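$ run holo --ligand "PRP" --emit tokens
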Amino acid sequence: MKVLIPKSKIARRIKQLAARISRDYSGKKLVLIGVLKGSFVFFSDLVRQLKIPIEMDFIQVASYGALKKSSGVIKIKKDVDIPLVGKHVLIIEDIVDLGYTMKYLLKFLKHKKPKSVKVCSLLDKPSRRKVKVHLAYKGFTVPDKFIVGYGLDWAERYRNLPDIRSIRK
Ligand code: PRP
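-- output --
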């Protein structure tokens, strides 16, 4: 495994993203929604850098492994608990790969009548994208390699690694 993005670089980028989000949503009712499980490290680092008041919640989609990845069949495993009506929603994700998960979540959350829904993803793997997804905030673009660490797993392992690492395919 080789280090693709060291923790110092991740921390610097998160400070920049948090500054932009704090500026863009100043004076607005903002709810950050973390997509479990992968986003948990990014989420916790990002929220602690924000300079504005926020609400937070989490959502989880059922993973059907290879089937989910190839077919785009997605289901909600854990819904958000707090009302989103009239609030601005920012979805916090660790990585957008094929794009199916985010496309589904955007549609699902829009049904809850928020004022706006946007996406903040630490990582973007555009080379694999199957459906178009707009990332309002993005940390890094990554190559088509298997990526672990900083929340991302390989069979539930390596989520706790502080750097983002790649496993050669
Ligand atoms: C990963 C990642 C995104 C999704 C992206 O989650 O965290 O939620 O896949 O995939 P897509 O763009 O190809 O749809 P995963 O299903 O591995 O669950 P996890 O977050 O619990 O690790």
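-- notes --
The CA atoms of residues 4 and 49 lie 23 Å apart.
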